[in-house]
What we know:
- By secondary structure, the protein is mainly alpha-helical.
- Helices cover 56% and strands 0% of the residues.
- The chain is built from 17 helices and no strands.
- It has helices at 35-44, 47-51, 70-88, 92-101, 110-120, 129-140, 154-161, 171-176, 194-217, 223-226, 233-240, 248-278, 283-287, 298-316, 319-339, 357-366, 370-380.
- The longest helix is centred in the last third of the chain and has 31 residues, at 248-278.
- The relative contact order is 0.14.
- The model has no long low-confidence stretch (mean pLDDT 93).
Amino acid sequence: xxxxxxxxxxxxxxxxxxxxxxxxxxxxxxxxxxxxxxxxxxxxxxxxxxxxxxxxxxxxxxxxxxxxxxxxxxxxxxxxxxxxxxxxxxxxxxxxxxxxxxxxxxxxxxxxxxxxxxxxxxxxxxxxxxxxxxxxxxxxxxxxxxxxxxxxxxxxxxxxxxxxxxxxxxxxxxxxxxxxxxxxxxxxxxxxxxxxxxxxxxxxxxxxxxxxxxxxxxxxxxxxxxxxxxxxxxxxxxxxxxxxxxxxxxxxxxxxxxxxxxxxxxxxxxxxxxxxxxxxxxxxxxxxxxxxxxxxxxxxxxxxxxxxxxxxxxxxxxxxxxxxxxxxxxxxxxxxxxxxxxxxxxxxxxxxxxxxxxxxxxxxxxxxxxxxxxxxxxxxx
Length: 381
């Protein structure tokens, strides 16, 4: 079957469909959809992806309809990554796929939920939302006759594994995943593709800027407060002139829009400079690097650090947010303690055949939406 992928516009060091290392379980590829388009479609049609609609980014999801969820965040990351990929001559489909999938392993109630499950699972192999994403796409999603999971391409799996860079020690992965799950097709300590690096930095851009927007809309801090962040002050000064003519929400949107654009342009410029120094010819030249080529400039790294510190102090540690996250922590802690006593009363019995009870309960809780967790807590606790 002739494959008509039309990827001649990609750089020589980009990930190309024609050179894909295939999948863990062999399948015939499609003649008009690239392997990474198929990966993306499998992710979008998965139950775990749909549930992101009701999983909190920062706020407990019952608080308001206009704050971001894991689903809206993932879509925003995908849009930023496609922009970067197109400008840099990289594979847009793979960037989008990695962006959409990267948060599928998150618990209810944001990072607070992950903290609880990590504590509950400390003696049973631990819990990590990035590794949980891999459990979902390789084991837990069950939609096919011949295999469990989504049977994504090796390139997509490699990008998900290395969302935060090369993996130096795979012991933590092996405690949570099946040993040799990837059949020696992944080189863990090698650097990821540029597409994976793009998805990772797009996550950073989206997370920071959209948390700033949500925090402003929730009145956790003011526009004047964020003007204390270096590099942002000039953007704010430009838009505050329009405060009498436009609603505050419009001004906020414009500030965030400009900041995202500034960061995206900085990544494109910095990455192109890095690539000129590296002079990669093939993708192996990317894999063999000692650091990421897709990056912020030194000046933007400082701004990124300032934004993270500001959000930590003024949003994540805000008494209103702490109150909600503490409620979420109690819900998940109570559920784990209760479910572990008689797990088969609530969870399908066949799931216990090849897994320990604690891991099955952790999978069950991690897969919950905020409101399902709250409602189940009210019902059984």
